[in-house]
Amino acid sequence: MAGRIPTGAEKLVQCLEHEGVEYVFGLSGGAAIPIFDALVDSKIKLILVRHEQGATHMADGFARATGRPGVVLVTSGPGATNTVTGLLTALMDSSPMIVITGQTNSTNLGKDAFQEADVTGITYPVVKHSYLIKRSEDIPRVMREAFHIATTGRPGPVLIDVPKDISSGPCDAPFVDAIDLPGYRVPGRAARAGIETAARLLGQAERPLLYVGHGAVISDAGKAVVQLAEKLRAPIVNTLLGKGAADETHPLHLGMMGMHGTAYANKAVIHCDLIMAIGARWDDRVTGKVDEFCARARKIHVDIDPSEFNKVIRPDLCLEGDARLVLEDLIPLVEPGDTAAWLKQCAAWRRQYPLKYAKKGGLRAQQVLDRLHHITEGKAVITADVGQHQMWAAQFCKTTANRHWITSGGAGTMGFGWPAAIGAKFARPEAEVWAVVGDGGFQMTMAELATAAVHKVAARCLIINNNYLGMVRQWQELFYENRLSGVDLEGNPDFVKLAEAYGIAAFRIRRPADIDRKLKAARAVKGGPAVVVAEVMKEDNVFPMIPAGAPVSHMIIDPPKRRLEKPVGST
Amino acid sequence: MAAPEPSARAGADDVHAISLYVNNKPGVLVRVALVFARRGYNIESLVVSATAEGSFSRMTITCRGDRGTLEQIIKQLAKLVDVVHAIDHTGDDAYETEIALVKLRAGLSERTQILQIAENFGAKVTDYGQESLMLRVYGASDKLDAFIALLRPYGLRELVRSGKILMVRGLSET
Q1: Contact B78 A120 (CB under 8 A)
Q2: What ipTM was reported for this prediction?
Q3: Could you say which architecture CATH assigns to the domain A8-168?
Q4: What's the whole-model pTM score?
Q5: B contact residues 22-51, partner A, Cβ 8 Å cutoff
Q6: What digits encode the pLDDT tens for the residues A233-272?
Q7: How does DSSP classify residue A61?
């Protein structure tokens, strides 16, 4: 190719190589053909998916498993609109992702050309930033900026729309290394005065609590969280997405808080006199009724995104900065107060309200997940879909290492789990990766069984099959007089046969005695994916549960005997 | 013509005046508008104009609503990659002005009264027709409000207001 001016597409692919991209998850189409063509001569591996949504979740899973951005390449129009759910999922959970969409020739923009869609327009609310490339010489600058924006500060998805005449035309612009974004600032360390105030408040607290979110995962703040907790003698709780930042099996860790968190974690939330949010955003799943959330406790909020301050809660102190850097500056300054009585109380709650499930009366998801946790020695990367199985997995699969727990928290995107596992396995081939999915969510992206089979992706998929949209059924049972509507998944296929149709090894768990044997058999499958279908009891409910919009103190620990009021929270 | 008067300071929770310094690029206006729309916050006026540096634009936005929501909106505006800064100038020492064009159906019997009002407000007649008058007035927004209120009984045919623009006094940044 010496002497020839590269095409825009070739330049774009060179930029991807320049950014260290190994994999592109994509689905081709007319407007993107020049970019797919350029990939033929690249060392970047193209992973052809079966639906664009799958590509986005694979890239997202890749990103969350490593912290490196996941890259998606799709065509214009419907190809691009199929990425919208994945963009929302990544934005809500601050996941670094680059989505490159082919676009019709720039002369056709706005003229309803075939497969034309106003993709930047459609996606404005679901991206951290986006570009529509109008001049080929902008390609290197846009690519450098996109990766910078996606991966720094509070990470998020960046979309790049590339008209076909730009990707086919010549581009001899050089690579760009310098970033010139006057409107973009990446916070690092927090102001010293704030750190000193935080140290003072923490030292005064008798019942301090560290509330750890996804920001701590992203900034790899887990070690600092544990150091701070040990120095303060303070308990730790984490959000659904904060799982794994600090080892959930640490003696000071009370596990997950919030709507389906452990009772002892939520008891600590109710009774603490200081709560410190570390990379967490007081989500409604965590606070329940905001007015009553830790109403008498002091609140400290550490966040890299200042627009989270005073959004839901008005804290006593806000520290803007990277969670790890803030904690590292804070730890030397804190002087622990006397928390002995507080830790004793937390330990008593832990004994009094353990997570539990009945071990007889049929196959229960909790037992399957409990066994999965033990058989994998807590070392597997778990990607969970959305629903009851997700909450049970969050409860019973204690996460011991950072980036070992991946799920769609903010968006609650069903269909996320399985493709995210494929992406995570590409990112970390040495790791054992298990998707935990329900029969409802799995069917939204199950076409990616083909992707896993073709590329021999040795991820495992555990389908918790109750032939229901179980979480909605639970709400209807508890709050809507058991008037079931739109939840019965009659017509489900035989998932074992389905997997086998793709040439994938598949196992079925029918009774508790099968669990260990089948999980171990799936683990032993070499050189490709495996599917395990757990045919669990149809009607089972997730507890503890804080009804949506209710105060944390209204937590339901055991199955209620009476009918409950409809929740005031929307979801 | 009299020099326009500086506007009165805005109150604590009525109309807010926000100044944005933004990249001069397509799509920026949509991104800004979406932040307001998502929170159900109505924009009362919006002026986009050139700045001393060609690669940036100035947006001056007035809107009405509670201060807590606005504080959040401003932080979300500042978070946009294309927004260099977003400042709420409500209560700041800033010079504010606005232009209004007013068209009236004005018969002979009413003209004298209308022209008297115009003179009192320093308004200029920009079109003197057989059956109509066009007036241009500028100054603080509340002055324009008063002017328009006085003319309303004479039958406003058309009204165009530029929306408020403002600049902070002294060397502080707008």
Answers
A1: no
A2: 0.93
A3: 3-Layer(aba) Sandwich (3.40)
A4: 0.95
A5: 22-23, 26-27, 30-31, 34, 38
A6: 999 999 999 999 999 999 999 999 999 999 999 999 999 9
A7: H
